[in-house]
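Check these lines:
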Amino acid sequence: MDQRRGRSGKKKNSPEKNDEAQEEFVVKSKGKQQKGTKQTEDNEEKKGVQKIEKQQNIKEVEKKVKQINQAEQKYELGDGKFSTPTIKISSWNINGIRAVTKHEEAVQYLSDNKFDVICLNELKADQIVFDKENLGAKFGKHYFLYLNFCKSKGGYSGVAIASKVKPISVKCDIGVDKHDQEGRTLTAEFEKFYLVSCYVPNAGQKLERLDYRTKEWDVDFQNYLEGLRKKKPTILCGDLNVSHHEIDLANPTGNKKTAGFTQQERDQFSNYLQKGWVDSFRHLHPKEVKYSFFSARNNCRQENKGWRLDYFIINKEASDAIIVSDINLTVHGSDHVPIECEVDLRKL
């Protein structure tokens, strides 16, 4: 047996060694305490971040739910009867209601008493922003305002109808879930006709939505319109995001693979018209060159280098009711200009 070991057989340490061991134990203990404290702090911080994220997610869900509920709100309805034999309708892609209403002449146009109905595309605002900034006040007091906002994200798409007469019914979207998240259609039923304000999806700069646009949206939307016209004459208006013929844009040769003038989009529009619908402007002005959209670049508007993307379409049986269909080039405030039509209700 090793004589330097005690009864337990363990080596005895000197007082100096004992002091060193004690110091080492204290240091290790403090290290563990500090490590434990840091872990606790990290955990608390992580919990705090998770709590904030959870609250943000809840708020985001609540916001979406609120928007959906507001999109399904009970609209102020009436008998849909106009007191005059003819009415005037305007449709305008305003490219953002907050931006357009900074232009005095645009606000004047939106509050003009001469129109019985004004339809708007591309509001680029949600219900919360619209209410907070009191954007409805930009319209004349003689209008009843009906809105459909984008539900999937704020500041995108959205359509509106401002009418002097309360419609019989108002419907947001077309009843197909995959299309109904972006707030692209609003249908108002009046005594003699349906009016559909629409902002058709763009195929995209790289044509990434071309298949969706032509193979899904166009098919389902056209079916929706067919269902309406079986009940009443139907007028479709808005930015339909297609220039149908070469006469409808300034540079057809250089835009054959550009969204709005691809062969697929033009063919789908032809198929739609062939089912018994009439492009009222081209019907009344077979050879007139006039555009409703101008890029903000390269002085396109000043040089009249544009696209006709905005339309009033009516089912063929009622096409004689459209007595005026034109494009108003005098109004500024958007990259689109308003289109206007006059309808003889007696012929519907």
Q: What stands out?
A: The radius of gyration is 32 Å.
